[in-house]
Amino acid sequence: MLRTREDPVNPVWDHDLNVVLPTQDMQHAAITMHHWPDYRPTPLYSLPAMASTLQLGQLWVKDESQRFGQGGVKALGAPYGLLTLLGEALLLPPELIANGQAHDRCAAYTAIAATDGNHGLALAWAAKRFGCAAHIVLGQAVDEGRIQRIRDCGAVVEVIPGTYDDAVLLAEQRSRKDHHTLLITDTDYHGGLPVTRAIMAGYSVLAQEMAESLHLTPPTHVFLHCGVGGLAAAVAAGLWHVLDHAPNVITVEPTRAACLFASLAHGQIMQVPGDLSTRMIGLSCGLPSQPAWQILRRCASGAVTVSDELSLQVQHTLARGIGSDPRILSGDTGVAGLTGLWLAAQNPLLQQAFELNENSRVLVISSEGPQPGQVI
């Protein structure tokens, strides 16, 4: 699918975006907060042989497999969202909570969220670190391995007979019953949730790291995979601030759960009903997040959907490496963005529509590593 931007000229950051998305000041605050003793920027790899195979000028892959030892980029978002809400609830500087100096006071609170796996794991890890409890709600499609990792971090896990979208609504309901239950959601169906803005500010640390690694060589294309779109939008917003212009984003989703594809095609938020199951489990979402939609509708020049079969093929290719390229172990969800690029670069119609050629400099994110014990 090709979608022409509403504004044929590069869109500008406007007041409406400041209302729903993290501002540059919020991003700077998040960057400061993530400079914990165990913080390390994750590597940005150049893959020249794969770029040549796809007839591209340059290809970079940001490898999130070792983020805080949690194996995924979500460890940037949930901890910062939880820090923000605990700081507000306890009237304490977030630094004291992050440094473990407020465990006794944090113990009165429970963090709750819905997840397809990685957000819940990151929240459970953060809650244990800061001294509060965690309650994670999951839809029935999440595999036992992901569920057990969340349990191993000390969280209470609740699996419901429904989808991720059903889990989001249930977590919201539970949070309203007790002011000591803090909703740490990276999905905002209505718009205006401060915690979602904070989580997106946490994700935007990724954009700052990538910009520093790329120095003065900005990407011409950024292929970003989407579930509800929060991570993709946060990275796009972060790059927008850093580059001082909107990045050229192509969204990527599983064929069975392509809510942003449908929304971009119709020019308004659309919900995808029915069976959303996919091996890219973290993207098994039927309704976009409102703040994510606000940024992606402005800077997404196109959207593609990818099959489970192709994502598995690309996952294996990335793990084996091409030529002397570094070998990157990506998870089932993490490889989706590269899968979208792989599809587009080898499809003449999409290649032309997205203006992919030997001068293109493409950036993708491997947002998670494999699950423990998974052989790729």
From TrEMBL:
Its cofactor is pyridoxal 5'-phosphate. The keyword Ubl conjugation does not apply. The keyword Ribonucleoprotein does not apply. It comes from the Bacteria. Keywords: Pyridoxal phosphate. Residues 37-366 form the Tryptophan synthase beta chain-like PALP domain. InterPro entries: TrpB-like_PALP, TrpB-like_PALP_sf. This is Tryptophan synthase beta chain-like PALP domain-containing protein. It comes from Pokkaliibacter plantistimulans. The lineage of its organism: Bacteria, Pseudomonadati, Pseudomonadota, Gammaproteobacteria, Oceanospirillales.
